[in-house]
Amino acid sequence: MGVAAALALLDEPATTKLPPLECLFTVDEETGMTGASGLDGSMLSGRTMLNLDTEEWGDVFIGCAGGGDTMLSLELERAPLPAGWAVRGWRLGGLLGGHSGLDIHEDRGSAVRLAARLVEGAFAARPGGDVALVGFRGGDKRNAIAREAEFVLAGPPEALHGAVAQAVAAVFEELVVEYGSLERAMSLDAAEASAAAVLTPAATDRLLLLLLGLPHGVVKFSHAIPGLVETSTNLAAVRVKAEEPSKLTLEIITCTRSSVDSALRDVRVAICRIGRAAGAVIDQEPAYPGWLPEPEARVVKLASQVIEEITGKTPEVKAIHAGLECGIIGEKLPGCQSVSYGPTIRGAHSPDERVEISTVGPFYQATLALLGRLADAN
């Protein structure tokens, strides 16, 4: 929606009162912010930035969390599938998912974490070693709470379809009790599968150490701003990175956020420590900066005025527990004043993402009014 609004501004007639405009379009905002990170600040002369990327119409955002991703590559040993063993797969789905910053405070279920609990339940039911993990994958984007995950188990047919299946079902029922009032559409499906190899017990232990041991969810709420998440981390995805007869390499992706640099660093260090304990190879990208609030900035006051005039309500001026590009871009533009607002968007970074159409018109009207006042101020 921000791109559409910027393009519409460029197509406004000459009679529209506007200041000199520079429209900046970045790539990769949803998956890594590499576009903003790679920006050469000398390209831009303006020092007032309107970020048209926020998802709650009527509110004005003036700060955000910083963050960074960690990728853990885990090479897992395989052994041939024992003769006579059956193979069966399970798929956990129907979870809400959502944005790993904006929705993390709701304690929505992570399909990756919950599926790992199902696997752990299967092994707890068969301590004698006659069950094996074949594979595991789940989640999608780094900044989305995982909605789906799947795993495959193998074992003697009577055990796999008996005690193991019963144990998985029992743990799922526990999850329904834990999350049922929130995750109303959570489902578990099973089907026969095939495989030529299984993970060794040691490899399975290493994988479960990560999937059950890595932090996930809210780590700390802010002491300064009631209700604002200060620090969180998202166990985002498990992907197959490479596959050979004798080994399976999985990549586990986490996304950590915080408005406090030391807290961000602490959680990322913990992730690295846990990863190394499991024998993972760590690739931790440099953290991107947060956006320090400037509530007295001229553009903040003007944005608040025009939104109040259009909506009839005083906008809430606040910070957000998500990674907006304002912090990254602002760091490259000394003296830049920024504000962020936008139409209402639901289900961001998920297949259910949608815009509330009734907020698009007022949002664009506010943008024109704000730019008009900035033109007068210049």
UniProtKB/TrEMBL annotation:
One of its GO terms (molecular function) is metallodipeptidase activity. This is Peptidase M20 dimerisation domain-containing protein. GO terms for biological process: proteolysis. One of its GO terms (cellular component) is cytosol. Residues 94-155 form the Peptidase M20 dimerisation domain. It comes from Prototheca wickerhamii. Transmembrane segments: none annotated.
